[in-house]
Amino acid sequence: MKKIRFVFDGPPGPECGRFVEVENEKGESISIGEWVEEGKFWYLEFPDHRTANAELLEALEQMSSWFDVDGYANSVPPRVFVFKMREAIRKHKGK
Fold first, then answer.
1. Are 16 and 30 in contact (CB under 8 A)?
2. 3-state secondary structure string, the chain?
3. Are the beta carbons of 22 and 4 closer than 8 angstroms?
4. Which position has the higher pLDDT, 83 or 78?
5. Dihedral of CA 23/94/46/64: which sign?
6. For residues 91 and 57, is the Cβ–Cβ distance under 8 A?
7. What separation in angstroms does the CA of 26 have from each of 18, 29, 46, 75?
8. Is the dihedral of CA 23, 24, 30, 33 positive or negative?
9. Residues 36/45, Cβ–Cβ less than 8 Å
10. According to the model, what pLDDT value does residue 40 have?
11. Cα angle 80, 83, 86; round to 5
């Protein structure tokens, strides 16, 4: 299971640690989300994977209707299928 770690320089508590960076499971710094300032607060926002997964499943379900029971494409040209699949994957990845 891949993990994303939010690193702080101290434990949680009344005077908790400050945010340092976001890392992958190997301890490498990664860029994720977008920092947004609203009033006196800052937010690190990133897409909700549950929404992305639902959109991907919906796209895959739609694509499954393009094939007959034997797995042959009904009436969808291969280029259209590839384009739609790439579009669904990009949406899933948040690009």
1. no
2. CCCEEEEECCCCCCCCCCEEEEEECCCCECCCCEEEEECCEEEEECCCHHHHHHHHHHHHHHHHCCECCCCCECCCCHHHHHHHHHHHHHHHHCC
3. yes
4. 83
5. negative
6. no
7. 21, 9, 21, 46
8. negative
9. yes
10. 93
11. 150
pLDDT at 39: 94
The whole-number average pLDDT for the span 70-91 is 68
pLDDT beyond 60 at 95: no
User: What is the C-alpha separation between 34 and 4, in angstroms, rounded?
Assistant: 15
Average pLDDT value over all residues in the chain: 77
